Amino acid sequence: MDIYMEDLIEELLKARKEKGFTQSELAKLVGLPQGHISSIEQGKIDIRISTLVQIARILDHEVMLIPRQFNSLVKAIIEEKEGVESEPLWQPDKEED
Q1: CA triplet 23, 8, 45: central angle to 5 degrees?
Q2: Which end of the chain has fewer CB atoms surrounding its CB within 10 Å, N or C?
């Protein structure tokens, strides 16, 4: 499994726990066996896009394709929203103050 899938699975697991759902509860909402949710979270199976979208929406997330050059901007926005301290993406030159 590549790093991007690991990140995706980690985010799904985090979102499920934040919503307070057990695997069984999520499985019931999605219409899948609990074992399938477990296999997804362990990275044992490739998740179908339709299933990913359904799970994400149940967990109050959206699946989006973002042009790679905007990844750092999106991450900065999310971190700011979550209160994570990060370096600004842009700072004025000393002459611009």
Answers
A1: 60
A2: C
Which CATH number covers residue 49? 1.10.260.40
Q: What is the pLDDT of residues 13-50, one digit of tens each?
A: 999 999 999 999 999 999 999 999 999 999 999 999 99
> What residue numbers bound the domain in which 25 lies?
3-66
**Residues, the chain:** 97
CB 49 within 8 A of CB 67: no
Q: pTM of the entire structure?
A: 0.76
Please tell me the predicted confidence (pLDDT) of residue 89. 58
